[in-house]
Amino acid sequence: MLSVTTKETIRATLPAVGAAIGDITTLFYRTMFAAHPELERDLFNRGNQQQGDQQKALAGAIAAFAALQLEPDQARVDLILSRIANKHASLGIQPAQYLVVHKYLFAAIAEVLGDAVTAEVAAAWDELYWLMAETLIEMEAGLYRAAGVADGDVWRQVRVRERRQESADAVSFVLTSLDGTPLPPFAPGQYLSVGVHLDDGARQIRQYSLSSAPSSRDWRVTVKRVDAHTLPDGSVTPRGEVSNFLYRNIFEGDVLDVTTPFGDLVLADDDAPLLLISAGIGCTPIMGMLGHLAQTADPRPISVIHADRAPSSHAHRAELAELVDRLPFAVMHRWYEDLGARSPEDRLQQGRIDLGEITVADGTRAYLCGPLPFMLGVREALLDKGIAAENIHYEIFGPDRWAPATP
Ligand SMILES: Cc1cc2nc3c(=O)[nH]c(=O)nc-3n(C[C@H](O)[C@H](O)[C@H](O)COP(=O)(O)OP(=O)(O)OC[C@H]3O[C@@H](n4cnc5c(N)ncnc54)[C@H](O)[C@@H]3O)c2cc1C
Ligand code: HEM
User: Fold this and answer.
1) Mutate-to-test residue for ligand 1 from 167, 209, 212, highest number of ligand atoms within 8 A of CB
2) 365 CA from centroid of ligand 1 (Å)
């Protein structure tokens, strides 16, 4: 809890800090990486830095956390912090590193806001930072404890037992321990981090959702290689570094550095009717959930909805249908932008996803994974259908700009 005086100072300065927070986080990363190049090279995702996504996610989280101290909403605080803590845990972040972030963040605040940062203002934001940091440190310690690892000690080596082509651009890797013992269990929907050493000497880390059922001895991830693409202004973005590295270089028998699974998009422990909605490679956490539901022959109504460019680009297409077939009350709807020579049929449609005809039972929980604009559109349609906002859960394949932004 912040003191009353601190709250008043935060209230008075939030508009100014909020307006400048984008500049502050940009300067923060620039100066921190100049002093600690190893953080940019070996810990942070430099693709996200180039695109500005991580700067925006940090800015959004700090601004939202500050606003939530003034208008408390514990559920939103928990949602925002749990997402960050899980991501931090999957990277092995440790308490001492919060001092480093503090140093460069507060230097950036002082530089951007100049004289407006009086001793009183600095002390108030300092208190807010440590409230957020200490809550995160505690949550991360809880996650490390629950995973049975020492603080930050999340990395292990695994061997690729099988590599399978799942679509033209996506491959799955079945991972097994080096000594043949079962890998630790995980919750359906969770992800792990993969670290690879690239040609320029950087060790870059990315997250991949577990696309297999949690109770098997092995883990499976499915990676879609990210191609270069042309933006509306004509500039061309580079090919994804890690996805292409994995696609081109990792085969059966190879050893990979991965972390213990973390992630807070997990199936709730209840029997609510389910809507599982994915687009493109966003199918992966949903495959993990469906695998689990099929293993337990879950008897509840489940609607599985997937959107993709074409059947040929749909990773795990046949496996998805098999899992749905194994569930007594599950139905599958698919939308492909290009159906090729096939004709639309019942629950197999051409075009973009349209939830108009999907019926939603009372108390339904929805789990979403796909590009952010897709999920925001689906969220609106689900709210219109009467699904409660707190029953709409999602995973984003990048820094989260949803949680701080959605009411
Ligand atoms: C929780 C979570 C789960 C995930 N699960 C999966 C999964 O199951 N399967 C999966 O395939 N992916 C998954 N992802 C995404 C994955 O982690 C990677 O983000 C993805 O593989 C791309 O990584 P990359 O290194 O290939 O691309 P990066 O090199 O990181 O590039 C990412 C994007 O940034 C663009 N970019 C890079 N530099 C610039 C620049 N200078 N200017 C403009 N644009 C630039 C690239 O063109 C590309 O489009 C998940 C992500 C998260 C957070
Ligand atoms: C109070 C302090 C901090 C806040 C508010 C914060 C906030 C965030 C947020 C919002 C994200 C994006 C999460 C997501 O949606 O995926 C994130 C990711 C991350 N954080 Fe922190 N963080 C803090 C401290 C730290 C510290 C101490 C470190 C270690 C140096 C760190 C390293 C990272 C890394 C490496 C990522 C992933 C970046 C990426 O994938 O682009 N953070 N953090």
Assistant:
1) 209
2) 28
Tokens describing residue 99: 């001092």
First to last CA, the chain: 22
CA of 88 to the centre of ligand 2 (A): 6
Supply the angle between the helices 53-70 and 119-147 in degrees, to the nearest 10. 110
- Ligand 1 centroid distance, CA of 241 (Å): 8
d(CA 113, CA 116): 6
Mutate-to-test residue for ligand 2 from 36, 54, 125, highest number of ligand atoms within 8 A of CB:
54
The amino acid present at 1, given as its one-letter code, is: M
Burial of 200 (0-12, 13-18, 19+ CB in 10 A): exposed
Q: What is the DSSP letter of 344?
A: P
Token output for 301: 């109504």
pLDDT digits (tens, 9 = 90+) for 260-316: 999 999 999 999 999 999 999 999 999 999 999 999 999 999 999 999 999 999 999
Instruction: Verify whether ligand 1 is closer than 6 Å to residue 371 (CB atom).
Output: no
Residue 404: pLDDT band with limits 50, 70, 90 = low
**Residue minimizing CA distance to atom 41 of ligand 2:** 45
pLDDT of 365 above 80: yes
Round to whole Å and give the CA distance between 187 and 125: 36
Phi, psi of 134 (to 5 degrees): -65, -35
Report how far residue 238's alpha carbon sits from residue 1's, in angstroms, rounded to the nearest whole number: 45
* In contact, 312 and 167? CB cutoff 8 Å: yes
Residue 231 in tokens: 């933006």
Contact 23, 112 (CB under 8 A): yes
Please state the rounded mean pLDDT for residues 118-144.
97
**Domains defined along the chain, listed by start:** 4-147 (1.10.490.10), 155-259 (2.40.30.10), 274-395 (3.40.50.80)
Mean pLDDT of all residues in 89-113: 97
Instruction: Tell me if 109 CB under 6 Å of ligand 1.
Output: no
